[in-house]
User: Fold this.
Amino acid sequence: MNITELKGYYEGYLYHACQAARHVISAEIMASYYLDIAEKIGMLKARLAICNPNLNIWQAAGLGRDELKHCSLLAWLLDPHGDHYQGAAFLELFIRQCINSQLAPKPAIDTGDLSCTRVQTEHPIGDGRVDVLIRGKGGTFTLAIEAKIDAGEQEEQLSRYRKSLPKGSVLAFLTVDDREPHSGQADLCIAWSDIATVCRQFIPICQNNFLNELIRQYGNMLQSL
Assistant:
């Protein structure tokens, strides 16, 4: 029995309980309903103890809607040198799915060799700090990501970042609803749900089962932001 089936059974119990308010039902019948529900709850708990598809370690850890924590986790996944030891696999999917698909008429970022790419968080830029900065080997490309979940934009924030970035850089604005920024112009707008899509695409090629499960849970969390 799963949650949906238990819910349906419980609703049936409530219906009979309502009927009991109008008609007398024996104590034996009501007791049997209580025992039956208790047994089914016990069976469900036993199944969830073995495998709970709704378990989410990120929710339990309080990741919630914390932008800094989300950016740190995203940067870790994007970093080819991260201790996930999956190289540039996530970064390549991210660039193809979220960046190059929207960059035209700007030239696409070359994903041929991303192994020496550098990824930083809270990188100083002008008089501010951009959430995630990704730089290709030898300055082949620079990708700056300004992320928002609940926080608002600072005055002329993206305009200031644009002026301080190297010529030809890509500035991406990452939000819950891929909205346009009002503090300057971005080259493209992406949503956290797009990152969830990358998570799903990453799972079949990831070589670490434990990491796969963490990525699956993180993707599910991003879908509910």
Notes: Strands lie at 118-125, 128-135, 142-147, 170-175, 188-191. The longest strand covers residues 118-125. The chain has a mean pLDDT of 89. Residues 27-50 form the longest helix (24 residues).
